[in-house]
Amino acid sequence: MDHDLGWWVRIALDGWRRRRGPHYRRIATTLAEAMERGLVETAERLPAERPLAHALGVSRGTVVRGYDTLAEAGLVERRQGAGTFVRPTPGWTHAPAQTPASTLLQRRLAGDEDMIDLSMSVPAGTGHLPPAARPLLAPGLDGHGLHPAGLPELRAALADHLTRHLGLPTTAEQLIVTCGAQHALSLVTAALLSPGRAVITGCPVYPGLAGVVTGHQGHLVGISVDALGLETHAVDRAAARLNAPLIYVDSAAHNPTGAVLSASRRRSLHETVRRRGAVLVEDLAQAGLGLDPRQPPPVPLAADDDSVIALGSLSKMFWAGLRIGWLRAPRPLHGYLLRLRAASDLAPSVPAQVIATRLLQTADTAWQDGLRRTLRERRDLLLALLSEQLPAWQARAPQAGLSVWATLPVSDSETFAHLAGRYGVIVASGATSCVDARHLNGLRLSFAESPGTLESAVERLTAAWEEHTRELAASPT
Q1: What digits encode the pLDDT tens for the residues 122-152?
Q2: Which end of the chain lies in a sparser environment, N or C, as judged by fewer CB atoms within 10 Å?
Q3: What is the pTM of this model?
Q4: How far is CA 97 from CA 26, 290, 337, 354, in A?
Q5: What's the CATH architecture for 3-86?
């Protein structure tokens, strides 16, 4: 589909051919649902009839009839010589993601500050809490504490962190706080994935991706990853065969190999998105964890293209127990994602957000440099231990992130992973990260543990490997 028609068209009209009925009605119905979801905003001009007809592979008359159908329903206004514009949403429509509770919550947040709220059956403020517990919360917190987008203070701190430390200019209004990056990814896939839609990603891949994609009836297309990151020429070839695919990339630090997407591949990926009508989802959960002090941190892809959906969390840099993640989405999609977020669990935990705000405000450059130095030392220690005690394994030094990807001289590492568990070490087998069955012999090993823990872990893995190789040698060929 032609990129020049507008970013939202790639999402708004996805799957229109799979509907029933004549083409004009399929187009009209799909656009009407996009308006309900907030992907097409009030007063927005719809694409001109001829370019849209060309992009959809239908006649101009089909598009004209579809627009006429929307006009008859009162959803659009046809202005002679100017185009077709979205009218204010009729009162009888509603967003499918809303629930009665989230509707009341958003109505309260949209109201005047002096409004009295009797709709929420929860305590107002924190003054009734036991005195000993009050220091756990920030002073001045009042109301019911339910903020679907997240506390304004946290969103401001996140925006400052993304802007100053990651090179991604961001405002608080662009952000939605989530319960970790996995939650953010689930919201994006719920909003964008229709049954059968493809998600192009690197292989091996972040283990949590497969679950959310298959849960929304999408399917993964695996692309090789090397020392320069995702092989973008292969991404382009795959995207050329697919209809408006999603492309998932962890550009700052590929999980699990730790590769950083090169500058030339970044440009190539932007070009693919533009040429193929793809939607780019950038995972920045490990951004800021570069391990080479000589290399400047890569600029996020979202910094160069406002249509990129960026997400991340504080789990990698601070602590996974916070369960604080974030979403930065283009304006046409932001409102719908916020309604999805509110409908799923109303709002994130305030105590966790307060702690996260304080961490972001105190984690200065010196602290972050110290964190990266510590991780670099632990990465080097783990690689040295593997080289010395498990020389049959192959492990490449990651450029960023928190894990080493090791390949074993076996066809599948799952059996060894079970055996390692009996020796007291839990490892992620290749099957947890593999899309196309080419990386089943891999293991993802975290080096975020203390040096003593890493030394003990490798000793146990060595003992487990010795038993495993004895069993392999004794088994019949």
Answers
A1: 676 666 767 776 666 665 566 677 788 999 9
A2: C
A3: 0.79
A4: 22, 38, 9, 28
A5: Orthogonal Bundle (1.10)
